[in-house]
Write a structure and sequence with these properties.
The protein is an alpha/beta fold. The protein contains 13 helices and ten strands. Strands 3-2-1-4-5-10-9-6-7-8 form a ten-stranded mixed beta sheet. The protein starts with 8 loop residues before the first strand and ends in a 12-residue tail after the last strand.
Length: 304
């Protein structure tokens, strides 16, 4: 029987999202590919420091146990194979032995490998790759590499926070807001409070996390999710009704009515936060690991 990842939560992640390769990347951005490869070769025996998404990956992999692997993390990178060797060695050095698969494309976009992987999430520092992945229907976010890294207050909980519109849900309501203003948005959502919103790009990830949580972890790991949205009453009701229609519950919901999200996320302490609006992402990144979801009307150049 061939090996399959069908029964696992699959996370595809780039080298820069998992480890701190910012110094090396500055060499690469000078269009000096040869110098970049040589630098990585010189540092083969030097483990890279953890990057922005390291905590998320480490905690998700803690759901695995001997003979029962529920989470698969695959390296999906524009790096060359030599640099890929350093990435695998860094995984081993930092106690991530379950990271065993990788695709290294030496400068070419790797996003098209998401389909055979069946990835539930793609994290990359490359905005173009993320945009193309979202266009193909894969939950994907550009990791803000300057984000504050996750804290260690909740070692047995994977904490993930999501924006609502254009992330978990479609951007239907956001389009009304941007075209007609807040009052029209509130009326629209009140009138349709009993009608679930269409799925957004990250609904498949939330559903996969729900399945993982339901299955449970042998090591006492848990998942705690939060909806962090600019909605407020009465527009909050449609968001909650949508989650109910999916038979998926979030642990916390913050209806902030336009308040800055960063301070609230600082208190929730997620291992990662996903939002479609760059202003919210920038606010979050000052406190927690954050990623930009290039989706919906707020991202007209690349939105779905």
């Amino acid at each position: 029987m061939s090996v399959t990842l069908d029964d696992k939560l699959v996370v595809a992640i780039s080298s820069r999202a998992l480890f701190d390769f910012e110094e090396e990347n500055r060499v690469f951005e000078k269009n000096n590919d040869r110098a970049y490869v040589e630098l990585q070769r010189q540092r083969l025996h030097v483990p890279a420091a953890p990057g922005v998404a390291f905590s998320l990956v480490r905690k998700l992999l803690a759901f695995n146990a001997a003979g029962r692997q529920r989470v698969e993390v695959v390296l999906l990178s524009r790096n060359d194979p030599v640099s890929g060797m350093r990435v695998f060695r860094s995984c081993k050095a930092h106690g991530l032995p379950d990271v065993q698969r990788g695709v290294f494309t030496q400068g070419r976009s790797p996003f098209h490998y998401l389909r055979p992987l069946g990835a539930h999430l793609f994290l990359s520092a490359n905005a173009d790759d993320v945009r193309e992945a979202l266009h193909l229907g894969h939950p994907a976010a550009r990791v803000v590499t300057e984000s504050v890294q996750a804290g260690d207050s909740h070692p047995h909980e994977v904490r993930i926070a999501f924006d609502g519109d254009a992330v978990l849900f479609s951007d239907e309501a956001e389009r009304v807001y941007q075209a007609e203003g807040l009052a029209a948005f509130q009326r629209h959502e009140s009138d349709k409070s009993s009608q679930p919103l269409p799925d957004g790009p990250f609904k498949p990830l939330l559903a996969a996390l729900h399945r993982l949580q339901t299955a449970g972890g042998d090591g006492g790991m848990r998942i705690r999710t939060a909806l962090v949205t600019a909605r407020s009453a009465p527009a909050h009701e449609r968001a909650v009704q949508t989650l109910m229609s999916w038979n998926i519950a979030v642990d916390e919901a913050m209806f902030l009515g336009g308040l800055e999200k960063g301070p609230f996320l600082r208190e929730f302490e997620p291992d990662f936060f996903f939002d479609d609006q760059t202003g919210h992402v920038a606010s979050a990144a000052r406190h927690v690991p954050a990623g930009h979801v290039n989706s919906g009307i707020s991202n007209p150049a690349g939105g779905n």
